From TrEMBL, chain A:
Residues annotated as catalytic: D310
Cofactor detail note: Binds 2 Zn(2+) ions per subunit.
Pathway in which the depicted protein is active: Pyrimidine metabolism; UMP biosynthesis via de novo pathway; (S)-dihydroorotate from bicarbonate: step 3/3
Organism: Microlunatus elymi
NCBIfam families referenced in this protein's UniProt entry, alphabetically: PRK09357.1-1, pyrC_multi
Top-rank taxon: Bacteria
Binding site residues for Zn(2+) 1: H64, H66, D156, D310
Name this protein carries in UniProt: Dihydroorotase
Cofactor(s) of this protein: Zn(2+)
Protein function: Catalyzes the reversible cyclization of carbamoyl aspartate to dihydroorotate.
Residues that, per the record, bind substrate: H66, L67, R68, N98, N283, H314, F328, G329
Automatic annotation (TrEMBL), chain B:
Keywords annotated in UniProt: Pyrimidine biosynthesis, Transferase
Organism of provenance: Microlunatus elymi
HAMAP family in alphabetical order: Asp_carb_tr
Designated name of the protein: Aspartate carbamoyltransferase
Assembly with partners or alone: Heterododecamer (2C3:3R2) of six catalytic PyrB chains organized as two trimers (C3), and six regulatory PyrI chains organized as three dimers (R2).
Pathway the protein contributes to: Pyrimidine metabolism; UMP biosynthesis via de novo pathway; (S)-dihydroorotate from bicarbonate: step 2/3
Length: 433, 311
């Protein structure tokens, strides 16, 4: 029997009350054999952690992680990626399907889940591809993947641009309450060369850009398809003010639509691109200040439901090209909570309960995890907990990352660095030394 | 000035100095022995990731006439398709002991990125849709002579210069806009809306979609080459329609004020953006531009590499 007694932490629950829920506020938290138990029952043998002055949150869940295994183990493995996730306070991650081979079969999905279990740092829930090979032509075996517990499907990296295929996918997953997570971006609108936001900066730098409309138009189309099929649509990494307007319109009409925003779209702007540093090349691209403001407001008022990292590790040599030729993506798992605290909490846009909603409760609900994840902690449940020091700040040092990659857009920037302990699936998976 | 990446890197004094020295360098072309010792012992590498006969030859001749050791490396195709990163390619070349790298790349910003990896001086010989600063310098050199070189950089004060065609994809246009404004001229961009970049309103230029209205009141017309892929890319309906709307046709040449300069960075699509009448007109400066290229690049190399090898 193992016992862990976290003494004096201020528990933030996200407000979702239910039977056996741990009370919010300052208290001791006992985890016995991986489950929450009454602290009054702690034995003298319990390992005690002094958490005076610290805050405890339900374990964070990332809806959007690229673990690169199988296929690009030089950039990230399930083990290194989930180690980074644990350091960032995540108890669980949803692993995107654009691996090599693509996660478009039940066997491939099961393999990734097993790798996650072996690593043991964060629970790994595979996302299945919508189409075979992400080619956007034929549906992948959505039902067989659902049989082993996959509930979220995405061709992320590619947009499911064929509206007929998108309709079929939405219809099909309704049978098992699945959700289609769309990378909303009309691939024809900007062409293959697009590598940043289309605007004054792209025009001056001579870079081909995506117009904001390339995102918003696809969200609008998909919202109509979700309405037609009465299915659940999730919009990945929303990046523009126009998209926020479309989301608000769709939600107002009762369409089953949810959305996520990345930490980097909450803080960085297209101005970062001016030095042609491929670290800041990301898809969807960084946008102007007014979009960042709209995204923050939408996350605060719930138009955007969740924060998701879009953690996209790349080997150095895949970024050391000319900007237009370099790979898209940036790291995000280890810094996500710090960026959200900086942009949303420290600015007064979110309170702690709502922050928990956006980083744990909503992601769990959207992904359909149906487990102890993404819920207010309750006695008897498996512990999924993130203990943080909200006052702690540090300059980010890319060299210290647990990820195998170094494409870290925050290097050198001082940010909240709050995570002290992560407990995933009942076990400590990260503890700051 | 450590590198020449953008026309924006140049102060007005730099521009004047480069153009003045180019006047002297131009005389070398007329000597029987075309050689100055200025860059003896210096190594200049033309690292071209994209095809270019004109610019590469121009830099090569410029370097050789200054007695530099000039090496041409063609790295055609993106480094991505060859499997090697840009950084590795450039580090390999720089490790051979290079004083200056003249870089042409199909991707915007590549020369700027390179400066972060190596110690050698870098000259941008055209990067994607971004800039081509030595082209703008040679255009200014040519126009200054045409307007009256005696007035120095003041030759551009109050001049109105139309830049016509595919502004969006033109590195020549971007560098010229920066440089001509610096010199006191007013660039006027003329193109269909499909060939004007986002944010062009912030460039501080006049913008027009009506070439006929513009050309009667300008001192120079710079025609831009229409790249073949634009013709099928939906930027305009047909080549015929483009020529009718934005080509420098015989009628439009006739409508120009006397003495209006006609420029084109080449290679030309005769009959599309420029008629034979315009290209071969008495006031066409197109071959002068080519000749000026060598002199201006000699001047740029001299300014950057300092001429320590001069005896």
């Amino acid at each position: 029997m193992t016992e862990l007694l976290i003494k004096g932490a201020n528990l933030v629950t996200g407000g979702d009350d239910h039977e056996n829920a741990l009370p919010a506020g300052g208290q001791d938290i006992l985890i016995k054999d991986g489950r929450y138990a009454d602290p009054a029952d702690a034995s003298a043998e319990a390992t005690v952690i002094d958490a005076d002055g610290l805050t405890a949150l339900p374990g964070l869940i990332d809806l959007h992680t690229h673990l690169r295994e199988p296929g690009r183990e030089d950039a990230e493995t399930v083990e290194s990626g989930t180690r980074a996730a644990a350091r960032g306070g995540f108890a669980a991650v949803l692993a995107m399907a654009n691996t090599n081979p693509v996660t478009d079969t039940a066997e491939a999905a099961a393999h990734i889940r097993t790798l996650g279990e072996k690593a043991g740092f964060a629970q790994v829930f595979p996302i299945g591809a919508v189409s075979k090979g992400l080619a956007g032509e034929e549906l992948a075996e959505l039902g067989l993947m659902a049989r082993i517990g996959v509930r979220m499907f995405s061709d992320d990296g590619n947009c499911v641009s064929d509206s007929r295929l998108m309709r079929r996918a939405l219809e099909y997953v309704r049978a098992f309450d699945g959700v289609i997570a769309q990378h909303s971006q009309d691939p024809r609108l900007a062409g293959r060369d697009a590598c940043c936001h289309e605007g004054e900066i792209s025009g001056r730098l001579g870079l081909a850009g995506w117009p904001s409309a390339a995102e918003a138009t696809v969200i609008a189309r998909d919202a109509e398809l979700a309405k037609l099929t009465n299915s659940r649509l999730h919009v990945c990494h929303v990046s523009t003010a126009e998209s926020v307007d479309v989301l608000a319109w769709a939600k107002k009409r009762g369409i089953k639509i949810t959305a996520e925003v990345t930490p980097h779209h909450l803080l960085l702007t297209t101005a970062e691109v001016q030095g042609y540093d491929p670290t800041y090349k990301v898809n969807p691209p960084l946008r102007p200040d007014e979009d960042v403001a709209a995204l923050r407001a939408a996350l605060a008022d719930g138009t955007i439901d969740a924060v998701a990292t879009d953690h996209a590790p790349h080997a150095r040599h895949d970024k050391e090209h000319a900007f237009a030729d370099a790979a898209f993506g940036m790291l995000g798992l280890e810094t996500a909570l710090g960026v959200v605290i900086e942009t949303m909490l420290n600015t007064g846009a979110l309170d702690w309960d709502t922050l928990v909603q956006r980083t744990s409760i909503a992601p769990g609900r959207i992904a359909g995890l149906g487990s102890d994840l993404g819920m207010r902690p309750a006695y008897g449940q498996t512990a999924q907990l993130t203990v943080i020091d909200p006052q702690r700040r540090n300059p980010v040092d890319a060299a210290e990352s647990f990820s195998l990659s170094r494409n870290n857009p925050w290097h050198g920037r001082e940010l909240p660095d709050p995570v002290m302990i992560t407990i995933a699936d009942g076990r400590i998976s990260y503890q700051r030394q | 000035m450590r590198h020449l990446l953008s026309a924006a890197d140049l102060s007005l004094t730099d521009v004047g100095s480069i153009l003045d020295l180019a006047e002297e360098m131009a005389d070398v072309q007329h000597r029987s022995i075309k050689k100055l010792p200025a860059l003896r012992g210096r190594t200049v590498v033309n690292l071209f990731f994209e095809d270019s006969t004109r610019t590469r030859s121009s830099f090569e001749i410029a370097g050789k006439w200054l007695s530099a050791d000039v090496i041409n490396i063609s790295a055609k195709g993106s480094s991505v398709s060859k499997g090697e990163s840009l950084r590795d390619t450039v580090l390999t070349v720089a490790a051979m002991g290079v004083d200056a790298l003249v870089i042409r790349h199909a991707a915007s910003g590549a020369p700027q990125q390179v400066t972060g990896w190596i110690d050698a001086q870098v000259i941008n010989a055209g990067d994607g849709m971004h800039e081509h600063p030595t082209q703008a310098l040679l255009d200014s050199f040519t126009l200054r002579k045409h307007f009256g070189a005696d007035s120095g950089v003041d030759a551009f004060a109050g001049r109105r210069i139309a830049i016509v065609g595919d502004i969006t994809h033109s590195r020549v246009a971007r560098s010229n806009v920066i440089l001509l404004k610096k010199l006191g001229a007013t660039p006027i961009l003329v193109a269909p809306p499909t060939l004007l970049p986002s944010g062009v309103d912030s460039w501080g230029c006049e913008v027009s979609h009506d070439l006929d209205q513009v050309i009667t009141g300008v001192d120079a017309v710079m025609m831009l080459r229409v790249q073949r892929e634009r013709m099928s890319g939906g930027y305009f309906p047909t080549p015929r329609e483009y020529t009718v709307g934005y080509g420098l046709t015989r009628d439009r040449v006739a409508a120009l004020k006397p003495g209006t300069a006609i420029c084109h960075p080449g290679p030309m699509n005769r009959g599309l953006e420029i008629s034979a009448d315009a290209a071969d007109a008495a006031n066409s400066l197109i071959l002068d531009q080519v000749a000026a290229g060598v002199a201006v690049r000699m001047s740029v190399l001299y300014h950057l590499l300092g001429g320590e090898g001069e005896s």
